[in-house]
Amino acid sequence: MITDRQGEIATALKQDINRSQYDTPLFELIGLENEISLAVSKLAQWAAPRPVERNLLTISDQAYIQPEPLGVVLIIGAWNYPWALTLQPLVGAIAAGNAAVVKPSELSEYSASLLKALLPRYLDQELYPVVCGGVSETQELLRQRFDHVFYTGNSTVGKLVMEAAARHLTPVTLELGGKSPCYIDKDVDLRVACRRITWGKFVNCGQTCIAPDYILCEPSIQNRVVEGIRQTLLEFYGPDPKSSPDYGRIINQRHFNRLMTLLEGYTATVGGQSDSSQRYIAPTVVKDVPPQARLMQEEIFGPLLPIVTVSDIDDAIHFINEREKPLALYVFSSNKKVIKRMLAETTSGGVTVNDVIMHYTLNSLPFGGVGQSGTGRYHGKHTFDQFSHHRACLVKSLGMEEVNIVRYPPQNRISGNPGKLEHHNV
């Protein structure tokens, strides 16, 4: 399906979010194809019984862990990458042997409609139905009993999903978000750092759950960081990003209004232009943002990049740890001690050093949040494991029954001395 229908998928994404023809395969399709290829090539290995260590009482027996399907799972996708974030979990669910109800986001309506039309042509619709609709349809799905619920989206809805699942004691995977910090050390190569940060922040018009949400840097380099981002934006999108085929749009009017409200009261250092009729917001940088600003109170999820100054790495670590655990953390530094401290003294769902977003692309790494940024992991084998019950199996022989005398009553069968009996207990 991914190979056959690339053109239709790209058209739907263009209509949904003005996704460029180049970014569609890069951010939606290549990763999906890799997930499918990996699952096909490794499935026999993933599904095989895994022998475990035995003790003296089971030395001649079989002890192993057997992955088995959970049953019927619910996958609720997201609108910002509607194909990758909906179908990647489905790949793992199918590999693990489950049936799945797929609920694409109604906000990416063209992609949702296309997925509903296409998936039954490639998969058994009795086992993998697609349910389209909005809040009421999602609420109705959540009233049903599933064996696992996999949700990608914001933390507010994530809590509702978890609450609904709890009524059936259904386990959940919640891929949420949060404010992912990006610390820039004063001794790093700022040209490279600014290029990588600019790409990760403004691709998909900033609507990426692991985009750098804000920058932390010392005051001495703030203006150089701003200038580095300004020059990179000019290189990437030209003097007028609005006319660039590579620059996206905000998903809907509600999110556009929310972002414009976040920007109220601030003078943009870079960008700041907007057009409500096109849901266009220029790549925008705001410097000297105070920690208590509204820009710093919620996940931005758009093309607004605040810069908060910190006095040193101690201040940066303190700033990060005062807030909820983020989905991602980014550190730009050439100093191994700085990198080591950041990794050792903070926590986050994932971390990338000297780049952004790229840990997501490595399917040998588990992807997921911690605390308010989510629970559970996926990608590659981690998705298979997330959708599997890992059954503990012990297959014993009927021989060597004399060994079991130590656990049968009466306890004086071996010796009338309790002290000696204790020696035989395990």
Characteristics:
disordered C terminus; 16 strands; five-stranded mixed beta sheet; 13 helices; six-stranded parallel beta sheet; oxidoreductase; 426 residues; 37% helix; single chain; alpha/beta
Describe the 3D structure.
This protein has 426 residues and is an alpha/beta fold. 37% of the residues lie in helices and 16% in strands. It has 13 helices and 16 strands. It has helices at 6-17, 23-47, 84-95, 109-122, 135-143, 155-166, 190-202, 219-237, 253-263, 313-321, 336-345, 381-386, 418-424, and strands at 50-51, 62-69, 72-76, 99-103, 148-152, 172-175, 181-184, 214-217, 274-275, 280-281, 284-286, 304-309, 328-332, 350-353, 374-375, 388-395. The strands form four sheets. The protein has a six-stranded parallel beta sheet with strand order 11-12-8-7-13-14, sandwiched between helices. The protein has a five-stranded mixed beta sheet with strand order 4-3-5-6-15, sandwiched between helices. A three-stranded antiparallel beta sheet has the order 1-2-16. β3, α3 (84-95) and β4 form a beta-alpha-beta unit. α1 (6-17) runs antiparallel to α4 (109-122), α2 (23-47) runs parallel beside α3 and α7 packs across α8. The model is unreliable at 418-426 (pLDDT under 50). The active site is at residues 175, 209.
Short description:
The protein has helices spanning 6-17, 23-47, 84-95, 109-122, 135-143, 155-166, 190-202, 219-237, 253-263, 313-321, 336-345, 381-386, 418-424; strands spanning 50-51, 62-69, 72-76, 99-103, 148-152, 172-175, 181-184, 214-217, 274-275, 280-281, 284-286, 304-309, 328-332, 350-353, 374-375, 388-395. The chain has 426 residues and is of the alpha/beta class.
